[in-house]
């Protein structure tokens, strides 16, 4: 089905099942241990051996020799494969770092060997018996030291970031120089780790030329394409299966060393091999979000209207890498005739920087939305009113392009009202409750809505059970449930009559879980397949398809009626289709919006910050399942607390690695850190997004939260911290 004009009324609009707060259908399996993650799939392949991946203990140079004799002789060892056993494997479209092979080392903890043994402990013990000789070379590990000479680099990437290296509209320099009210500030965000609950893990099994991997991955079709290229095998000889994923946050968008080394280990061992990356390897072998250094200049008239806005960001990556597109939202969020955005990229020899939840906007808004707060203060304007004053209903760089829908003002006004914003004292440091200095902060949230082709297959049996198959993944987000809701709505059957099967590369390729596009695109693909199945059902029953009404497990046309299962016959009925998008995304700017409000208390003596209350008001088209959408937003708000106050991968600048490479050293919020959180969704639909009229919220919930916290800390204390995370040393 091709979607190139805004959606009109369709069966989803009945909202019998879609749009209702619905428990996750995979919830009972997940909470009773019957939803196994990759490493726990003991039943898929017999005689599994255990792999242990060894990472390089230096960041740059070459390995001159590896002595594996002791490892191979160790108890229980089946085989050892080292990076010297094969030439460097090809890089796929998705990888910047080379995943394995050859003597060259590009970054710390690059995989250099896999040891396969009868037990995990035997594999690990043997790995430490490998003797490696190497010639180390000096590396580049300090982003700040290299920022001044970093060249301009564009930021297009397959997970939807899109920004030219430099973009100018009007005359920024002239307009900024003439603006009566100006700020010129630099903000920094640190390296961040996805820190998902389930580490990267894979079981691999060969059957002749055919390879099956049971793994943990967000994007099955990309993974199949990329693994085929990396291993030099034909895609049709490859199957990926990833029905349950214990979190990804962008860290599992791409195949990593776990899949490659499970496959190579299994080949050498001639039996299935399972392995998981250790926590240190998750931090240093896989990807992370780059640190950024962001300079923002804003000029405004005394009337509070922005006349000039510039946002320049510098991030770091391995050679051939992309920058963090932290300027993305600044191109679209506020009006202003004279504009400049630019991205610079410093080549570094740290592990690969890549997408993490809301790549671009998450760190970009952490800077921009402090700058907006600073500007409002200089102008003597309330920060909510300053944002509203500078709203735009069109793409400011391309005024002929309207937003398909934009209700940022409504988010801010409703949020201010519900949060009690009028009770905020505009003068910092004036509200004290016992030892606590209390402050409120606001920030706008913004994240683009991306459209991507997505396919599904639906099957109806004679019991009236509808089975949906698609390679879409559920990374803890609720995909199973919204897909079931979509099929139930379309086929007029109760939710209990829908079976959803996900994550298998033998199923039709979906949009996958990335860039908050999963919900809208994957359900639109299911919608398309169900439209076909409805036609087949009507035809089978001898009904006119246009007249057929699907409800209560029945199909009715005129005065005739039949149970839907009757159409299926003994063999059942199947239909497959995909949603494809025309140029709607070019004609309309599609984005999601939020108003984030936060109240913090800062201990007047110690500088300890505690978040007290949070509210997000979201504008994101139709909300398919308010319950799972709310979970996504509160999860993202929690991640925003981490980003603002705790999270930082610390770089060892001498040896080039992330020091705090485990969950003891890399701090993320725990339950005790999370206060009262509230989420409100505006009641709206976006007909330009798809037949579902939905957009995404999984990343929107993070975008802007960090700055709202920083602004609340400023309001509480009068200390303006521009370098995240806002730890207590920066407040005293
Ligand atoms: Mo997202 S960073 O595209 O999983």
TrEMBL record:
Asked whether the keyword Oxidoreductase is assigned, the reply is yes
What Enzyme Commission number does this protein have? 1.2.99.6
Enzyme class at the top of the EC tree:
oxidoreductase
Any Pfam family the entry gives: Ald_Xan_dh_C
Q: Name one GO molecular function term.
A: carboxylate reductase activity
Q: Does the keyword Oxidoreductase apply?
A: yes
Q: Which SUPFAM superfamilies match?
A: CO dehydrogenase molybdoprotein N-domain-like, Molybdenum cofactor-binding domain
Spell out the InterPro entries in the cross-references.
Answer: Ald_Oxase/Xan_DH_a/b, Ald_Oxase/Xan_DH_a/b_sf, Ald_Oxase/xanthine_DH-like, AldOxase/xan_DH_MoCoBD1, AldOxase/xan_DH_MoCoBD2, AldOxase/xan_DH_Mopterin-bd_sf, PaoC-like
Residues covered by the Aldehyde oxidase/xanthine dehydrogenase a/b hammerhead domain: 32-138
**Which Gene3D superfamilies has this protein been placed in?**
Aldehyde oxidase/xanthine dehydrogenase, a/b hammerhead (3.90.1170.50), Aldehyde oxidase/xanthine dehydrogenase, molybdopterin binding domain (3.30.365.10)
Q: Which UniProt keywords apply?
A: Oxidoreductase
Recorded protein name is Aldehyde oxidoreductase molybdenum-binding subunit PaoC
Species of provenance = Muricoccus vinaceus
Q: Which gene encodes it?
A: paoC
